[in-house]
Amino acid sequence: MSEHAELWLVRHGPTEWSENGRHTSVTDLPLLPHGEELARGLAPRLTGTTFAQVLTSPRRRARRTAELAGFAHAEVDDDLVEWAYGDYEGITTPQIRETVPGWTVWTGGCPGGERPDQVGARLDRVVDRARRASGATLVFAHGHSLRVLTARWLGLPVEDGRLFRLDTATVSVLGYERESPVVLRWNS
């Protein structure tokens, strides 16, 4: 582990479902036209940093964001896919709560999808990969998966990902202060 490691997080640009709060994991939606514009706007914010590795979720929305931000060569890493919502794919939290009052992805998981510990296990592999890199790692992925990745970077349980609101087409940076993993920049 390198105390000089940094993990740069980019959430993909807006899609139709991200704009209206529908849980989107395996449904491979394209970016909206203004999502493509926002993704292009990420390029100047990422220029000037040398990345030891650039990784992306295999989903079209993440790969396209990487491409438009200037990282068409990003390596696909299946561990970066969004939380598998199973039966809740394509529906909103208020719709789920009509039959499961108080439900949250953080504590309830998703029937037919992933449990919090399963999501945490695969994102722990991304944390390990970033910490072994000889320099900064840049990842393009999704709202819930990046929030879990952040919690795991900080040594927190998966459910503490709920504490990190993350908007589309944003850049966040995780790193170290001395030997402690910290948030250097968030949701910018």
TrEMBL record:
Transmembrane segments: none
Residues engaged in binding substrate: R61
GO BP annotation list: regulation of phosphorelay signal transduction system
GO MF, one annotated term: protein histidine phosphatase activity
SMART domains assigned to the protein according to its UniProt record, in alphabetical order: PGAM
CDD domains with a match to the protein in the record: HP_PGM_like
Database matches in InterPro entries: His_Pase_superF_clade-1, His_PPase_superfam, PGM_Phosphatase
PANTHER family the record matches: BROAD-SPECIFICITY PHOSPHATASE YOR283W-RELATED, SEDOHEPTULOSE 1,7-BISPHOSPHATASE
Protein's name according to its UniProt entry: Probable phosphoglycerate mutase
Organism name: Nocardioides psychrotolerans
